[in-house]
Protein: Nitrilotriacetate monooxygenase component A
Organism: Streptomyces jeddahensis
Amino acid sequence: MTRRELHLNLFVYPGGHHEAAWRHHASDPGQILDIGFYQDLARRAEAAAFDAVFFADGPALADNVRYASRFRLEPFTWLSAIAAATERIGLIATASTTYTEPYNLARLFASLDHLSRGRAGWNIVTTGAPQAARNFGLDAHPVHAERYDRAREFVDVVTRLWDSWEDEALVADQKTGLFADTDRIHAVDHSGPHLTVYGPLNIPRTPQGRPVYVQAGSSEDGRAFAGRYAEAVFTAHQTLGSAQDFYADIKARAATLGRDPSKVLVLPGISPFIGSTEAEARALYDEFNELTQPEYSLQQLHRILGVRLTEEQLDGPVPRELIETGGERGNGSRFQVILDIIDREQPTVRGLLHRLAGARGHRVIAGTPEQVADQLQEWYEHGAADGFNIMPPWLPGGFDLFADHVVPILRERGLFRSSYTGTTLREHYGLARPDSQYASPRA
Amino acid sequence: MTRRELHLNLFVYPGGHHEAAWRHHASDPGQILDIGFYQDLARRAEAAAFDAVFFADGPALADNVRYASRFRLEPFTWLSAIAAATERIGLIATASTTYTEPYNLARLFASLDHLSRGRAGWNIVTTGAPQAARNFGLDAHPVHAERYDRAREFVDVVTRLWDSWEDEALVADQKTGLFADTDRIHAVDHSGPHLTVYGPLNIPRTPQGRPVYVQAGSSEDGRAFAGRYAEAVFTAHQTLGSAQDFYADIKARAATLGRDPSKVLVLPGISPFIGSTEAEARALYDEFNELTQPEYSLQQLHRILGVRLTEEQLDGPVPRELIETGGERGNGSRFQVILDIIDREQPTVRGLLHRLAGARGHRVIAGTPEQVADQLQEWYEHGAADGFNIMPPWLPGGFDLFADHVVPILRERGLFRSSYTGTTLREHYGLARPDSQYASPRA
């Protein structure tokens, strides 16, 4: 039996996750578009034996790019160049089921999986940003339920495309002249309410068969989707209790559908500020928060809560009632995370903005390496996490502190690998390689 | 004044361009999905100071993959990994205006141009393959004229997306907190018959401003499109006269539209079989042709001519009348190339199939290095070409022979560079970097 070990991803965000990271003297904004910077970062994560690097994405420009590094690196191109500079670390790309064509998306992932020799993962998202719809010929974005409806159909279709070449279909026998056994290449022939795709894919089956399926929505639709499809789930929690509830819920949903719950990894986001003393770590955290720009932070809050607060309200209490009743919410599950913070900590508006500046509702830990390791271990050992999505406040230093000081402690405690045992992301995550659904039964 | 020099691209095709290349003992079919193989090949082309590597593409599986390596490597991922293994060589990706969304495509190219530091080129195609339509929810592919209509609108829209960030928009001033000057980021706000895109792009302007625009259709619609948009044109010609006519036509079309004809490079495809004697080169050529499979070759002919010939007809004359009147043609301009071969050479059906096996209607030259160089020089100096798209019959040997034996002769004759003078594809091709159309007039 394999020993259970926690999993660690590096969630890469241009400039770092803290909204003011790019302004800090430890950051070099001249490098935010330099692929070499990201290749180096991935090499460091690989040297630390991390499971994967992960890139978020979205098909629109954020309104508030005036104040923060909120442009988007395109994940397929960026991760392909990173694949070329690394050998083992997984490569997880976010891609939308709302605004891409399944045939195109299936090809991008198949190709990424081939060129990385089996390291691709797909963070499956639906796109809700209203700006995105207007970039794709729509006046308004599809409603939540309809987006998930398309997402399910989309995943079923691309799965069949990835399966459309059986593993044995590529023969390439120089002597007989048989390049591909077309009896083992299958039309998908899908025609559904949202999508019509005939297939087959024009790329042979990949090292992993399919990319690892990752999911990050925590709404009711999102959880149902995760229970059915996800092999890893990214999620945001501030407290052990909330993370435990979510963890139990996802595992139960998977089990109900006949899946092995241990093959659905729950990975909360953690943004660590690390110092040699707790005071030093807190001072560092404050240093970043002092660089925030209230106009930006208020826009971010509005994006999540649908309520517009003003600079005049910064030093007053958070108007809880207004928040609970007002506005259309951009992100339902994140809304609850923020309400909980308000109830638990009773912050001023400025205090709340600072609480969210680090990681947009994900958990920020400021402490010594031991304290950070303790927190991770607690969640890991108490049914709240199978591992973590590490969200460095700034790059590369915020990651280096974690890799150099927290990772060794996790290893000493027997919680994290000291080197890779496999070569594919499925192997890092302990997931089996799926057979093609078209595969002939084995003798 | 810069001396005129010819341009050379390496057109990469899995296995090589000869339809039976993968069967030849010089090929290793085990490498056709190995990114390392293609990275090595690009490094060789870079060592030879080639302008670019070029990947074709299409969003469907060819019917006849049973007999030949006719799957598709996805160009954006593949070229991004190649970018990471090279420093100077251009990277030209084929991408369809028929079956992609402009916002997604604009992001892929912007990102490729950033990560390659200005080496991206876009081979702009419309997709006519009937199998493709069925992968994108359509029963039949759009008619030719409508596809070009959408293509024009598409190019105009993505051009504006690439221009939507002025060069000075990215400020990233840590002190003032201004990340991007939003007065210099522009909505595209396009609403046309085929496309609605609001913008702006979510990626800052790229090193080249826009990828180099390449075009490869030689139909009337294709030529009109090239005259208006193309900065490099790929084309297939068997004779000097045909290439000269095409060359003059493209340059005239560009001039009529007020463009500088020297900034529209015409690059015919050439597939060279090279031997130390002409007899050796011909023997090599025959060796490959003997590996062809008539069933495959007849399918290919049917794809181009719309006429289905049979194995019984292989050793008889080509039924010219049937070909001229029968069938729906897949590729109008290639049709004329083949009719000309039939008229000029009066081949048997098998002879015609062999003539097309090398490069699907592109010119095949079998000869000594001097003979090959002579042929290129003749076309280059007689108004038929500004350079060539080199299509090695097999890989990597077919390319190595050209790089090792023909390139030095071209250099001795002062026809080709011995090293790069620039770092971007625009610089290799002698093209200026375009200003953003939204740029404020310079003082």
